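Per-record layout

source: Ramlibacter albus
name: Cation:dicarboxylase symporter family transporter
length: 485
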Amino acid sequence: MGFLLTLVRHPMFLFVSLALGVGAWAIWPGIAKPLSAVSFAYLSLLNMGAVPLLVVAVFLGVRRMFTLPQAIPRLLALAFGGALVMFFAALVGASLADLTNAGGSIPPQDIRKLGSMSLTSESIASVSLKPDDNAAPVEKKQRAAIDNFFAALAFGSLPAILICALFFAVAFAAQPHAKARGLQAQFEPIYRTLELLIDRLNDFLPVVAFALAASIASAASSDGMALMQSFLLPYFATVLVAVMVAAYAMALHVGQSPFAVLEALRKPIVVSLFASGPAAAIPGFIQAMCNELGFRRDLVEFTAPLAPAFLRVGEAVFFAVMAVFVANLYGRDPVPSELVVIALASTAAAFISVNVTGVKSLAVGSVVLAYLDLPIDALLPAFVIAEVVCEGPRNVLSMLMAGALLAVVSRGLPSEQAPKPMLSTVIPSERVRVVLTRGRAAVATVLVGLCMATVYLAGVGAGARKAQSHKVPDPTGVKQPARSN
């Protein structure tokens, strides 16, 4: 069993799964849509453990963070440093896109193909400045602030969840150690259990890699991917430069080479590259940063859960390159001052898109293009295809930039690198035997049955109540005579 787990988690096995996914698409081109359901099921299971893990990690991380020397300056350095990293990464992306003339060297016939993608039957949408009189009224409820933490938790909005968790965590950190000892003793096993759960769910990454390869092959075979080459070239070049800068910053802190740092972070990098959700790599990132590279666990466990939601370096680079690409496509060559404006707008758009994931985040790109008075509607189908390829490198970039920030704010703190055991001092692990009697098994079965019956009856009651509130009118329009006894 241990050999199988080691084989499944090896990067070469994941690349073999990618090759098999491409081969499956070549045999059956329509396999990409059924496999998307598999990826969705995996992400749902992953979020089931990732969201509570992030909440508990914030609770524990904030309390430990305030025990560090110069905690407030380190927090401010994390906040402002993250914004500066996003801005400079977006500026580099916009500059490389401008140097490579992204979007400006596309032949006219390819531009017509690019525009014809928005005129397909799947992407036609009616746009009007006046409301439709025949449309049914839609009730909209808007709230300026979150007033229910459990509603935000059920909705799955990661930024809202983390903001609520931060408020609770500050109150928890303000309690004396004697009062908070009991609650902290409950949080610790919950955190370790959820961390182990996500680590076990990562064993299914080959299946996700198989589905991802089929989706990428389907997108790459289309005309849109070939037309977006001038966009992908500066984007991937920016990601590569930023990754090497982040690795060099961490290498200076730990006293190793950049390639040794990347080797230590190999597991979370591979997970971020193949898993659509950035939360999948958090347990491996914490383990590698603390045990392999020697970063303080207090800082890492505080920063790692917040980085996927608020340190969106990959999104800022994507929006900046996209803005220059669209500007060159419409014949408007950005001047250096406009590149700075694009970088600032891309940073703001990345913060705006904290609650939007996947292809929906492309709509936020209109915020950047609004400063240049350029539209994006006609190019959305092409960017939807490119977004599938850019999602994995975007997660990797944001994660490594979080590590670079940790290297900057960790100056002056002692290392926590775990010493590697010698062969002569290795203590064999003892097996733990769990005994479950028949009586306890029967009680557990009855409790599970009662829970399922409660959920079933609650669903029946909710459906009956909804059916009574929505009475179906008689389609004939004839009123039935009342029956006489």
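summary: Confidence is low (pLDDT under 50) at residues 121-133, 135-144, 418-427. The longest helix spans residues 32-65.
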